[in-house]
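Q: What would this chain look like folded?
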Amino acid sequence: MKIGLALGGGGARGFAHIGVLKVLEKNKIPIYQISGTSIGAVIGGAYAVYNDAQKVEAFMYDFINTDAFKELNLDVFDPDPKKSISYWKQLIKTTQRNISLFRTWRHQSMLSELQIEKIFNSFPDGKIEKLAINFAAVATDLVTGRETVLLEGGLKQAVIASSSIPGIFPPVEMLNTKMCDGGVSDLVPVYVSRGQGAQYVIAVDVSKSLNKKEVLTNGLSIIDRAQTILAYQLSRERLGGADCVIRPSSSRFSWASVRYIPEIIKSGEIAAEQALPAIKEALGI
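A: My prediction, written as structure tokens:
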């Protein structure tokens, strides 16, 4: 049976995909196809190159420890779920965040194309159609609003397009249009995997939990909550087409919680282990 993985978007929460891959690999569950959105495309694309979860994990640690990535200063966007911080530290974080956001009033994004090139400098490249594993990256066409499935061409460009968060990353100009984050149109690409021939689709949902209570004190917090609801409603419909849905507990973290990556990866392992009996039964293993 051809097994497909649909790896969803969710920023740092998506490092849980590595944990899922480690468990599937350990239990010799063969992966025929991987479809990824945003961080799912980053992790999935790297796995399609290395075909080894340990190598992907090592690469991603190196990736986030480059000077170019550290310059993103994602901590200012991360409401730490584990501890409260002092008023003054919160004020400093808020000020730094607002300064970063202010850039989007005069430019397409917080980051420039040159910064993105530096961040993804070490990401493996090559033709998607020549990868060891069938791979698809999902992006969103900003002009037509349509979901775009990238099945051929340069891997690095496809991954950047799929993970180009609107307002933070600049749109990627390709295929005579402008592309942005695939999560805008398809947060967990279950049907993409199915369309590429997968007969049994395992979806990994790392979207933000809708059950988390939030303090709606200002416009930004209300906008964030509305986006969470929108993502939930969109992914619920897509996830209905999966044969197995894995939901790591990383959903309690924010998209910027890079400081908790070891814990997030572990949450993927735990969730995959829990789903393993059902997967093996369905596959007759």
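The radius of gyration is 18 Å.
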